[in-house]
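Checked the freezer inventory, then went back to the computational side. Two predictions to log before the end of the day. The first one is the construct we discussed on Monday; recording sequence and C-alpha cells without edits.
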Amino acid sequence: MSLPRVFVARLNGMSVFDPMGDEVGRVRDVVVTLAGRDAVHGPRVIGLVVEVPGRRRVFVPITRVTSIDTGQVITTGLVNMRRFQQRAGETLVVGELFDRQVEVPEDDGRVSAVIEDVAMDQHRGGDWRLSRLFVRKGKDHALPASRGLRLRRRRGETVLVDVHGVHGLHQAGPAQAATALLEAYEDLKPQDLAEAIHDLSPKRRSEVADALDDETLADVLEELPDDDRLEILTHLPTERAADILEVMQPDDATDLLSDLPADTQEELLQLMEPQEAADIRRLLVYDENTAGGLMTTEPIILGPDASIAEALATVRREEVHPAIASLVYVTRPPHETPTGRLLGSVHIQRLLREAPHQPLGSVLDPDVDPLDPQAPLGEVTRALANYNLVALPVTDAEGRLIGAVTVDDVLDHILPDDWREDRDNVTEVADV
C-alpha cells in the first residue's frame, strides 16, 4: 500500500477540523527542520502554521495531526492558541523554501532551478518528511515590482526531483523571488497577508515587498506593526517608496512618515504628486494624539443638492473603507478638504431610509458637533462614544471641513503599540 503524499501548495489554505467536525482554521504554512541527526531520511516536518479566527496564526505540532486527506486536515481536540513564533533551526516551506534557488541533477552535472512546490510523505512510523521538490529549471528573473505579480511569465522545464539530490536547499541565496509564495497566498486579504509577512525574516519580508504591486503593498503596510512597515519602506528605492505613500491613506502615510528623519520626509514628499503631498503636509503639523493627527483628509463629501441615490452610489464603492462610508459630509463648495463651510452630515442608515431622489440638504443630522483639530485623544474618544458613531467630522476655525476621525484610527492609538503582535493575552490553550 502506498504511503500518503501531500504537496504543500495544495495543503496551503486547507481547512483544519477537530475530531467533532468543527473547523479550527486554515493551514497557512508547514514548519520543517532541514538539519539534524535524522535528516538522512529527508527534512522532518514538525508542524503546521494554522490561521484561526481573529487572524491569529498558531502552531499545530504534526503529532497532533491525525489525517491529511480529501481536502481537509483532522487534528486532535487540543490546540495551543499562543501566537506562532518561528524558532532557530525552523524553516517555513511556503515562506522560505518556495522560490528558493537550488541546483538539481541533470545528465552528468547540475543545473540551476527554482522551487515551486514541495511534497511531504508520511512514513510508517507516523513521521512526515519532505521527499520531493517540484522545480522549474533555469535561474529566476523577476519582473519589476511596479508591473505587478500577475504579469509575470515563467519559463523553463519543470521536473519533480528527489530532495536528497538537491544542492542549496539549506541556504537562501543573496536574493530570492516571491512568485510562488504569493501565488500560495493569493486568497488572502491585505490584513491576512500582512500577518503572513510579519512572520517572515526581514530579508524575506523585503523580497516579498519587492514582488507586490504598489496598491497591495500599500494596503499591507497599513496593517503591519510600525517596525515592520518602517523597515520595508526604508528598504524600497526612494521613488517607489514615494509611490507607495501616495497610494496609502493620508493618515497612515503621515504616521509612517513621522517616524522618519526630517530630511528623508522632505525628500519623499518632493517626489510625491503635489496634491497627495499637500494632504500629508497638513497632517504633519498636528500632534499625533489630536483630532488633526488622527484624521483622514479624504472623507465622503458632497453638496447639499446631491441626491441620496448619488450618496449611496459613492459610499458603495469597493475602495471606500467601511468607517469612512458610515458618514457623508455635506459642505459648501469646494468639496475637497479644506472644503467650504460644513453644513452637516448624514449617516448611511438615514440614507437607506429615505427616498433616493431627496437632496442631502433635507436630511442633515443637526446634532453631530464637529471636532476641533487640536482636540486631544480623550476628547475624540468620548465624542465617538457619546454619539454612538464610528466617524466624526473635523473643522477649522472657519467651519470648513478639513478631515474626519474614524474609530479604527482611534483604536490604533489607544491600544498598546505592539497590539498587532502581542496576542498572547487571549486564551492560550483552548479545547476546540
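The second is the one RB wanted added to the comparison set:
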Amino acid sequence: MHAHRKHSQPTVTRGPAFVRQGNEWAIYQHLLSMAPASSPQLAESTGLSKVTVTAALSNLERLGLVEQTGVRGGSAGRSPRLYAPHARAGFVVAIDVGAEWIRGAVADLTGTVVARLDKRTPAKVERFVARIVEIVDAMLDEQQVSRDAVLATVFGSPGVLDADNDRLRLAPNLPDLERPGLIPSLRDALDADLFVENDINLATLGEQQHGLGRGVDNFVFMSVGTGVGLGIIADGRLHRGAHGFAGEIAVLPAAPVVGSKSDGVYRPMFEASSAAKGIVAQAQRRGLTVANAEEVFVAANAGDQRALDCVAEEARQLSWGLASIIPILDPKLVVLGGGVGRSGALLLPAIRDHLAQWLPIPVPEFAVSATGTDAVLLGAIVLGVERARVKAFERLGYATTA
C-alpha cells in the first residue's frame, strides 16, 4: 500500500496558479499529520513530484507557514531536510463556560496548548463578558500573542445556538446565557468569527481526538454533572442533528418511581432525576447530610448504605436513559464524563446489569473518561485548529477548497 492512501486529505489537483495553491494546501495538510517530514516523504504521500513538493515547501516556508527543523540522519549521502508546520503562525482561543468555572486555553496551529487559565463564573451576568475577556487577554499577554494572531475562537457552553436569533437555547442551569444580546456582545468583545458550540459536543470531540474514543467510529459521550447531555459520534463524525439538538437527553422522561402507579400525564425530566441536584435531593431524603453529589459517592465508597442506595438509584436512572438511546444509535462504546460521570466506577456494574436485563441486543462497552475537566477545551481546540489552519491560508489570498 502506498503511503498516500493512509491519509484522508484534500484531493491533490494539477493545473495553473489556483491548482498550485491547492497543491500547497494538500502538502501542508499532509505535513500536519507526518511532521517532521522530508520532501521525498511528502512526495510519496501526496503523489506529487519531488520538484513540485520542494517548490511548494520553499514557498510555504517563505510565507511563514512551514519551517525547517533539521535533517534526517543515518542515511548515506546528503541527508534530506526535515520540515514541520510553523506552530506559532496562528493561534486558537478555547473557552468553556460552566456553572462554577470559566476555563480558557490558547493553542498553536499544531494543537499544542500554550496557555491555560480558569476563573470563577461570575454571579452577575453583567460581569460575564468582561470575565471572559479578562481570561483571554491574560492568556494572550502571557504568550505575547496579539489579538490579530488569533485565527479562531471557540466558545463552548450548555445549550444550543439558535443561529437565526444568535442566542442560546436550552441552558436551564445557566439561564443567563440565554439572554438576548449576550452572544453578539461576546462576538464584539472577542472575535467576529466566534464559533459557538454545545459543550458536550466539544467534550465528545475531545474524547475522540485525545481520549477513549480514538479509533472508535461509533460511540457516545454521556456527561452527567450539573446537567445531563449526550455527544454522538456516528461513523466517525459528530452528529448534531437537523437543528443542533441531537443528544439533548435532558428532556427525556425520567425513570418511573418503583412501585408507583402514575398515569403518565406528568413525569419529571431525565435531568431533574439524574443530574447532581437530583442525587443530592435523594440523599437528603434518606437522611444524609451532604452538600454535593461528590459527597454522596464518597459516603458510598465508605460503605454508607443510604449513599449506596442513592448510587443504585442513579444507576437505574442512567440505565433508563441509555435504554432509550442504545437501540437507536447502537454505539460500540459509552464514555461517562462530567462531575458525576467521573465517579462512574461505582455506577457501571449496575448499569451493565440493568441494560442486559432490559435490552435483547448487545450491551456496549463502558468506560469513564480520562480527559477530566479539560474535555470541552480539548474539543474546542480540535475544532478551532481546523478552522484556524484554513484561515491561515485564506489570509494569504489562497482558496482552500481544492
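For RB: The domain at 3-85 is CATH 1.10.10.10 (Arc Repressor Mutant, subunit A). The two ends are 24 Å apart (CA to CA). Let me know if you want it refolded.
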